[in-house]
Amino acid sequence: MNILITAGGTSEKIDNVRSITNHSTGRLGKAIGETFLANGHFVTYVTTPQALRPKSEDNLTVVEIETTKDLESALRAQFKLHSFDSIIHSMAVSDFTTETTLSEDLFIEKLAESLTKKGNLTDLAKLTEELYHSLDEIGETIQQEKKIPSGTDRLLLFLKKNPKIISMLKDEQPQAILVGFKLLVGVSTEELLQVGQAILTKNKCDFVFANDLEKIHGNQHEGILIDAQGQTETAETKNEIAQLIVKKVEEKWRK
Asked: How far is CA 205 from CA 44, 113, 202, 212, in A?
């Protein structure tokens, strides 16, 4: 099989030396990749510079990205080159990216300037509307500094929502067996299953691996693999998860 795996965690630049990221190490993606490789499959591994990855070998191609935008571009480029039998989307993708950054003084200056132009804003509904409009305008401020000065007491960071990468995967590669992942924190098993099933249905996944951060400690990595029929299987370590996912993908591919 020709397999595409995303692993690690994207980061979003604040300036040329700072960024926002998450705690994903890519350890689970590495285990999944190594298991597919051990079974003789070809793996394209899309990851970040800091994340773990399988050892180099002939059947492995590594593609490095940093931001969510990079990830989308890299995936679209791969989809033009290859038809994948399965996509394992285990990467922790940033929900938001930076829009602009302003010091406290600059933000207040721009907001005051914008509202002053609107005249008398004694009506609460009108004031609220204008505040939203002003924030949209401020968010479009082009950040000039390559490194934001550290002298300000407060730094205001504007974030905007990233596109959901998983939502476009089946549209781009409808033949691929798609495995999605959902991480929650401190929820019941019932909620974990409910959210995982919703992700599966919404994004046309064949499988979703749902897990809870509070049940990830060292080698322990408890989670539930849900298929399109609502059937579930559990695993308790990263190696068990990798073996389970590879087995299920291989079984579906053979059918």
From this structure: 19, 48, 8, 19
